[in-house]
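README: folding subset

This subset contains proteins for which both the sequence and a predicted C-alpha cell string are available. Records are stored as plain text. Below is the entry for Helix-turn-helix domain-containing protein (287 residues), shown exactly as it appears on disk.
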Amino acid sequence: MANISGPGPSLRSQWLGDKIRDLRKSRKMSLKEVGEYLQRDQGTISRYENGELPVRRGDLTVMLDLFGVSDEKLREDLEKIRKDSWQKDWWDQHREDLGKDFINLPWLESRANHIYAYQNMVIDGLLQTRATAEALIRNVEERTATEDQIARWINVRMDRQRILGGDEPTAFTVILEEYVIDRKVGGREVWREQLRFLHEVVQHPHIEVRVMPVESAPHSGHQGSFNLFEMPDPYPQVAYVDTLAGPLFVEQPTVERYSEVWKDLAKGALGPSESSQLIADRLEDNK
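--- output ---
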C-alpha cells in the first residue's frame, strides 16, 4: 500500500488489515477458510483486511494462532494497532465536517515522535494564530460554508496545536520559504501578530523554524508542501500532502522520496538562529 486518498477507513485500520492479509497469504489460506475457522462469514474477514471493520480482540488472537504467529513482539504490535483503531479522541466528533481522511491527520500528529513540515505558501497550521487560521479558512470556504462550520474548522486547527504543549510536547521542525514570512495573510495587523507568535515559539526547544532563503533555488521542494511523520514502533513513516482533491497520505516505499526531499531542503535552509533573526527583522519591518 503506497498512496491512500478519497473516503475510506482509518490508516491504522488499513495497516492492521494489510498485516492480516499478508499473514493469511503467507499460509496460503483463503478468506473462506479463515472465516470458517473463526465462525465468521467471508465478508467479515474481507472487511477486516480492507480496514473497513475494526477487528475484535478475540478474532485477532485466533487469527494469529491460526497463522502460526509465535513472535511475541509482532503479536504485541498488532494488538496495539488493533486497540488504537477502536480508540476515539477529540477529533472524531468532527468526522462529519472534515471527512474520514482528514481525521487521520490529527491522529498522526498525536502519535508522531517528530513532525517535519515544508511549507512553500503559508505558515504551517500547527503554528498559525487564530486570526491567520480564520483568514485562510474563510478565503477558501466562506462562499459555501456556514458561519458555524467555519468556526468549527478554526477550532479544530487550534485544537491540533495541543501536541506542541503539555509535559511531553511533540518535536516539530518546519522549513518555510522566505516569501511565506513576507505574505501578509489577513492584513498588516494580523500578520504582525503572526510574526510575533512565530518568533516566540522558536524559543521552545522542541520547535525548530527554519527559513529557506530565496537565493536557495532550485531545490527539491519545488513540487509542493508536505508533512513527514516519524512514528513510534510499530507504525510506519507517513507523509501527508494537502491537495485540491483532498488529503493524500503516502507510505512505503514512496514515502522515502519525501525523506530525500527533506534532507535536501535541510541543507539549503538557514539555521535556527539565522531564521529567528530573519523573522525578528520582518517583525521590526512590520511595526
